[in-house]
UniProtKB/TrEMBL annotation:
Keywords: Cytoplasm, Hydrolase, Protease, Thiol protease. GO terms for cellular component: cytosol. It catalyses: Release of an N-terminal pyroglutamyl group from a polypeptide, the second amino acid generally not being Pro. PANTHER family: PROTEASE FAMILY C15 PYROGLUTAMYL-PEPTIDASE I-RELATED (PTHR23402), PYROGLUTAMYL-PEPTIDASE I (PTHR23402:SF1). GO terms for molecular function: pyroglutamyl-peptidase activity. It comes from Sander lucioperca. Its main location: cytoplasm. Its EC number is 3.4.19.3. This is Pyroglutamyl-peptidase I. GO terms for biological process: proteolysis. It is found in: Cytoplasm.
Protein backbone atom coordinates (compact mmCIF):
# COMPACT_ATOMS: atom_id res chain seq x y z
CA UNK A 1 0.00 0.00 0.00
CA UNK A 2 1.19 3.51 -0.80
CA UNK A 3 1.11 5.70 2.30
CA UNK A 4 -1.08 8.78 1.97
CA UNK A 5 0.53 10.49 4.95
CA UNK A 6 2.89 12.55 2.84
CA UNK A 7 0.16 13.72 0.52
CA UNK A 8 -2.51 16.37 0.75
CA UNK A 9 -6.10 16.01 -0.26
CA UNK A 10 -7.77 19.26 -1.22
CA UNK A 11 -11.53 19.65 -1.48
CA UNK A 12 -12.89 22.79 -3.10
CA UNK A 13 -16.46 24.00 -3.07
CA UNK A 14 -18.30 26.96 -4.58
CA UNK A 15 -19.87 29.94 -2.85
CA UNK A 16 -23.41 31.31 -3.25
CA UNK A 17 -24.74 32.15 -6.71
CA UNK A 18 -28.09 32.78 -8.41
CA UNK A 19 -30.96 31.21 -6.49
CA UNK A 20 -28.54 29.25 -4.29
CA UNK A 21 -28.21 31.67 -1.35
CA UNK A 22 -26.88 28.77 0.72
CA UNK A 23 -24.68 26.60 -1.50
CA UNK A 24 -25.31 22.93 -0.70
CA UNK A 25 -21.83 22.03 -1.92
CA UNK A 26 -20.16 24.20 0.74
CA UNK A 27 -22.46 22.83 3.45
CA UNK A 28 -21.58 19.29 2.32
CA UNK A 29 -17.85 20.04 2.36
CA UNK A 30 -18.12 21.53 5.87
CA UNK A 31 -19.83 18.33 7.01
CA UNK A 32 -17.07 16.30 5.34
CA UNK A 33 -14.48 18.33 7.24
CA UNK A 34 -16.17 17.38 10.53
CA UNK A 35 -16.19 13.69 9.54
CA UNK A 36 -12.65 13.65 8.14
CA UNK A 37 -11.11 11.06 5.83
CA UNK A 38 -9.07 9.08 8.35
CA UNK A 39 -5.83 9.82 10.12
CA UNK A 40 -3.56 9.21 7.12
CA UNK A 41 -5.18 11.84 4.90
CA UNK A 42 -4.41 15.54 5.29
CA UNK A 43 -7.64 17.23 4.22
CA UNK A 44 -7.74 20.86 3.09
CA UNK A 45 -10.97 22.59 2.12
CA UNK A 46 -11.62 25.95 0.48
CA UNK A 47 -14.63 27.88 -0.82
CA UNK A 48 -14.41 29.28 -4.34
CA UNK A 49 -16.27 32.37 -5.63
CA UNK A 50 -18.34 31.71 -8.77
CA UNK A 51 -15.95 33.74 -10.95
CA UNK A 52 -13.92 32.58 -13.96
CA UNK A 53 -10.91 34.80 -13.28
CA UNK A 54 -10.67 33.73 -9.63
CA UNK A 55 -10.74 30.08 -10.68
CA UNK A 56 -7.97 30.71 -13.23
CA UNK A 57 -5.65 31.98 -10.50
CA UNK A 58 -6.82 29.89 -7.53
CA UNK A 59 -6.69 26.39 -9.03
CA UNK A 60 -3.00 26.61 -10.05
CA UNK A 61 -2.10 28.16 -6.68
CA UNK A 62 -3.69 25.25 -4.78
CA UNK A 63 -1.76 22.68 -6.80
CA UNK A 64 1.45 24.63 -6.29
CA UNK A 65 0.90 25.12 -2.55
CA UNK A 66 -0.21 21.64 -1.51
CA UNK A 67 1.05 19.26 -4.25
CA UNK A 68 -2.01 17.12 -3.54
CA UNK A 69 -2.51 13.48 -4.41
CA UNK A 70 -6.02 14.38 -5.52
CA UNK A 71 -8.24 17.46 -5.73
CA UNK A 72 -12.00 16.95 -5.49
CA UNK A 73 -14.25 19.81 -6.54
CA UNK A 74 -17.83 19.92 -5.27
CA UNK A 75 -20.64 21.98 -6.79
CA UNK A 76 -24.42 22.24 -6.50
CA UNK A 77 -26.73 21.48 -9.40
CA UNK A 78 -30.36 22.58 -9.29
CA UNK A 79 -31.22 19.75 -11.71
CA UNK A 80 -29.51 17.00 -9.71
CA UNK A 81 -31.53 14.57 -7.60
CA UNK A 82 -28.55 12.29 -6.90
CA UNK A 83 -24.94 12.85 -5.88
CA UNK A 84 -23.33 12.90 -9.32
CA UNK A 85 -19.76 11.93 -10.21
CA UNK A 86 -18.47 13.81 -13.25
CA UNK A 87 -16.24 11.75 -15.54
CA UNK A 88 -14.71 14.59 -17.56
CA UNK A 89 -14.27 18.32 -18.07
CA UNK A 90 -14.91 20.19 -21.35
CA UNK A 91 -12.78 22.98 -22.78
CA UNK A 92 -15.25 24.90 -24.95
CA UNK A 93 -18.71 26.48 -24.74
CA UNK A 94 -18.47 28.84 -21.76
CA UNK A 95 -21.01 31.56 -22.57
CA UNK A 96 -22.74 32.06 -19.20
CA UNK A 97 -21.78 35.16 -17.20
CA UNK A 98 -20.35 34.62 -13.71
CA UNK A 99 -21.11 36.49 -10.45
CA UNK A 100 -18.99 39.41 -11.77
CA UNK A 101 -20.90 39.45 -15.08
CA UNK A 102 -17.74 38.19 -16.80
CA UNK A 103 -17.26 35.50 -19.43
CA UNK A 104 -13.96 34.51 -21.11
CA UNK A 105 -13.62 36.07 -24.59
CA UNK A 106 -12.35 32.74 -25.91
CA UNK A 107 -15.33 30.92 -24.32
CA UNK A 108 -12.86 28.18 -23.38
CA UNK A 109 -10.75 27.13 -20.37
CA UNK A 110 -7.31 26.58 -21.89
CA UNK A 111 -6.65 27.95 -25.38
CA UNK A 112 -5.17 25.10 -27.42
CA UNK A 113 -6.10 22.47 -24.84
CA UNK A 114 -7.89 19.22 -25.77
CA UNK A 115 -11.68 19.37 -26.13
CA UNK A 116 -12.24 16.96 -23.23
CA UNK A 117 -10.10 15.57 -20.39
CA UNK A 118 -11.13 12.50 -18.40
CA UNK A 119 -10.36 11.97 -14.74
CA UNK A 120 -7.91 9.16 -13.93
CA UNK A 121 -10.53 8.02 -11.40
CA UNK A 122 -12.89 5.34 -12.70
CA UNK A 123 -16.16 7.02 -11.71
CA UNK A 124 -18.28 4.00 -12.66
CA UNK A 125 -16.30 1.88 -10.21
CA UNK A 126 -16.60 4.50 -7.44
CA UNK A 127 -20.36 4.72 -8.06
CA UNK A 128 -20.80 0.92 -7.87
CA UNK A 129 -18.71 0.61 -4.70
CA UNK A 130 -20.51 3.43 -2.85
CA UNK A 131 -23.93 2.18 -3.97
CA UNK A 132 -23.09 -1.34 -2.77
CA UNK A 133 -22.04 0.00 0.64
CA UNK A 134 -25.67 0.79 1.54
CA UNK A 135 -25.01 4.46 2.25
CA UNK A 136 -28.63 5.49 1.69
CA UNK A 137 -27.69 8.27 -0.75
CA UNK A 138 -28.20 7.71 -4.48
CA UNK A 139 -25.03 8.15 -6.59
CA UNK A 140 -24.82 8.40 -10.37
CA UNK A 141 -22.25 9.17 -13.09
CA UNK A 142 -22.34 11.99 -15.67
CA UNK A 143 -20.33 12.97 -18.75
CA UNK A 144 -21.46 16.61 -18.78
CA UNK A 145 -20.58 18.96 -15.90
CA UNK A 146 -22.68 21.79 -17.38
CA UNK A 147 -20.39 24.30 -19.18
CA UNK A 148 -20.43 26.81 -16.32
CA UNK A 149 -18.04 27.43 -13.43
CA UNK A 150 -18.15 23.81 -12.25
CA UNK A 151 -17.11 22.47 -15.64
CA UNK A 152 -14.63 25.33 -16.14
CA UNK A 153 -12.96 24.58 -12.80
CA UNK A 154 -12.92 20.84 -13.40
CA UNK A 155 -11.29 21.11 -16.83
CA UNK A 156 -8.70 23.57 -15.54
CA UNK A 157 -7.85 21.25 -12.64
CA UNK A 158 -7.75 18.14 -14.86
CA UNK A 159 -5.43 19.95 -17.28
CA UNK A 160 -3.03 21.00 -14.52
CA UNK A 161 -3.08 17.67 -12.69
CA UNK A 162 -2.93 15.34 -15.70
CA UNK A 163 -6.30 13.93 -14.67
CA UNK A 164 -5.74 13.64 -10.90
CA UNK A 165 -8.92 15.55 -10.12
CA UNK A 166 -12.56 14.71 -9.55
CA UNK A 167 -15.83 16.63 -9.54
CA UNK A 168 -18.94 15.81 -7.53
CA UNK A 169 -22.28 17.56 -8.10
CA UNK A 170 -24.72 17.57 -5.19
CA UNK A 171 -28.45 18.44 -5.25
CA UNK A 172 -29.79 21.47 -3.35
CA UNK A 173 -30.31 20.94 0.38
CA UNK A 174 -33.48 19.04 1.22
CA UNK A 175 -33.96 17.82 -2.37
CA UNK A 176 -33.90 15.20 -0.96
CA UNK A 177 -30.72 15.07 1.18
CA UNK A 178 -29.57 16.99 4.25
CA UNK A 179 -26.12 18.52 4.59
CA UNK A 180 -25.18 15.62 6.88
CA UNK A 181 -26.29 13.08 4.24
CA UNK A 182 -24.23 14.85 1.58
CA UNK A 183 -21.19 15.02 3.89
CA UNK A 184 -21.40 11.26 4.53
CA UNK A 185 -21.72 10.64 0.80
CA UNK A 186 -18.65 12.78 0.04
CA UNK A 187 -16.66 10.94 2.70
CA UNK A 188 -17.55 7.54 1.22
CA UNK A 189 -16.93 8.69 -2.36
CA UNK A 190 -13.55 10.26 -1.66
CA UNK A 191 -12.37 7.31 0.40
CA UNK A 192 -13.17 5.04 -2.57
CA UNK A 193 -11.36 7.42 -4.94
CA UNK A 194 -8.25 7.36 -2.73
CA UNK A 195 -8.42 3.56 -2.52
CA UNK A 196 -8.55 3.31 -6.34
CA UNK A 197 -5.61 5.72 -6.67
CA UNK A 198 -3.69 3.71 -4.09
CA UNK A 199 -4.28 0.50 -6.04
CA UNK A 200 -3.18 2.19 -9.29
CA UNK A 201 0.04 3.49 -7.66
CA UNK A 202 0.76 0.03 -6.27
CA UNK A 203 0.24 -1.55 -9.71
CA UNK A 204 2.63 0.96 -11.34
CA UNK A 205 5.21 0.36 -8.60
CA UNK A 206 5.01 -3.41 -9.11
CA UNK A 207 5.37 -3.07 -12.89
CA UNK A 208 8.46 -0.88 -12.44
CA UNK A 209 9.90 -3.35 -9.93
CA UNK A 210 9.56 -6.32 -12.29
CA UNK A 211 10.97 -4.51 -15.32
Amino acid sequence: MVSLQSYYKVVKSFGPFGEHAVNASWVAVQELKKLGLGGEVDLHVSEVPVEYQTVQSLVPSLWKKYHPLLVVHVGVSGMATTVTLEKCGRNHGYKGLDNSSFCPDSQCCIVGGPDCINSVIDMESVCKRVTASGLGVAVSVSKDAGRYLCDFTYYTSLYLSHGRSAFVHVPPLGKPYSGEDLGRALQAIIQEMLELLDQAEEKIHCQQHFH
